[in-house]
Amino acid sequence: MKPIVVIDYNGGNLASAAQAARRASADLGLPNPVVITGDPAVVRDAERIILPGQGAFANCAAGLHGGLRAALDDATAAGTPFLGICVGMQLMAERGLEHGETPGFCWIDGEIARMDQAAAEGLRLPHMGWNRLDYRAGMHPLTEGLSPDAHGYFVHSYALRNWNPADLVASAEYGGVVPAIVARGNRCGTQFHVEKSQRTGLRIMANFLLWQP
To answer: Is 193 a catalytic site residue?
Structure first.
């Protein structure tokens, strides 16, 4: 039985992300085990891949060594569904501009930049707390069954800019539009922490585990 893999790359929040996946999997009655691993061979053989992340873009990117980055590319190119959470989502972009320029995965358009517009409007950074998710019902399977007033829990000072509108599944408002869920093909990500977003987060996690892109 292929596992649901939570990637261990010193990116933080691993246990919480794994617990959310286990809870959603158990609620759905799925037989696949949820494992935390940094083994590229296990990543390549995964049923689904979850990449959590917290902290700086550059540090998280540097943690994907020892073949992990290549394993991610290989597995997702072969069709394995991927969910990036917070910095895990940000790494999907072309580059990050936190502490210098760092290449991303180039899976979606855009770059990760400081939320200067929010700061200019006097809003606190990091953006921390609950924000309503703006999405169009039926647009993507990840939002299936969400309440029209669904909220996600955000903790970040950097966000995706210059995105491709075709990749945007949901957004939030914080000194301007903040991409909250992005997806292209079998690769998706959430800027907010699904593992901290209670009922909304569990529903999105369940949707990801059932998703057939």
So the answer is: yes
pLDDT digits (tens, 9 = 90+) for 133-150: 999 888 899 999 999 999
Among candidate residues 60, 111, 156, 195, the one labeled active-site is 195
Cα–Cα distances (Å) from 141 to 28, 114, 210, in that order, read 16, 29, 9
From the candidates 86, 98, 127, 156, give the one annotated as an active-site residue.
86
Burial 96-110 (b: 16+ CB within 10 A, else e): bebeeebebbebbbb
Tokens for 132, please give them. 């309503």
Query: How far is it, in rounded angstroms, from Cα 127 to Cα 203?
Result: 23
Closest by CA position to 83, among listed 131, 9, 142, 33? 142
pLDDT tens for each residue of 160-198: 999 999 999 999 999 999 999 999 999 999 999 999 999
Give the whole-angstrom CA distance, residue 82 versus residue 208. Answer: 8
Among 194, 213, 196, 197, residue whose Cα is nearest residue 205 = 194
pTM above 0.85, yes or no: yes
Dihedral angle over CA of 148, 159, 60, 182, nearest 10: 40
Q: Are strands 102-103 and 95-96 parallel, antiparallel or unpaired?
A: antiparallel
The one catalytic residue in 127, 140, 156, 193 is 193
Dihedral sign for Cα atoms in the order 155, 158, 160, 162: positive
